[in-house]
Write a structure and sequence with these properties.
- The structure is a single chain.
- The chain is of the alpha+beta class.
- It has one domain.
- Helices cover 26% and strands 34% of the residues.
- It has a five-stranded antiparallel β-sheet.
- A hairpin with a 3-residue loop joins strand 2 and strand 3.
- It is globular.
Length: 117
């Protein structure tokens, strides 16, 4: 972690919201940008839209249990955080990077993206 970033817990991580980011973007083989991430998740971990709950559960568990999120500051829309965690799946293992925002006027983190490092 860079020395200017501080390790913290995601605020109100027990209410972390994945929205439809996994279905519509990260694991969507038809999304213009997400299809590349989808291909990597499938080839490295065997995770696709069909078994997306593996990734969803891992992300939520990491969000709730880690105190190693990096606070990245305010981007004008809210406070940004990055959290990395290891994931072991049936097809392999990888480190996952998740990015979160706590929007102005809200008090819980929303997933903005995730990918395999």
């Amino acid at each position: 972690m860079h020395e200017y970033l501080r390790a913290v817990r995601l605020p109100n991580a027990e209410r972390a919201d994945l929205g439809d980011k996994l279905e519509q973007y990260v694991l969507n083989p038809n999304h213009r940008h997400g299809r590349h991430k989808a291909r990597v998740f499938e080839s490295v971990l065997g995770i696709t839209l069909v078994n997306r709950e593996i990734l969803a559960n891992a992300i939520l568990t990491a969000a709730r249990n880690s105190d190693e999120a990096e606070a990245r500051g305010d981007n004008g829309h809210g406070e940004l955080y990055v959290l990395r965690f290891p994931l072991q799946a049936a097809a392999g293992a990888a480190t996952i990077l998740t990015a979160w925002i706590v929007r102005h006027g809200e008090d819980f983190p929303r997933l903005t993206t995730c990918y395999i490092l």
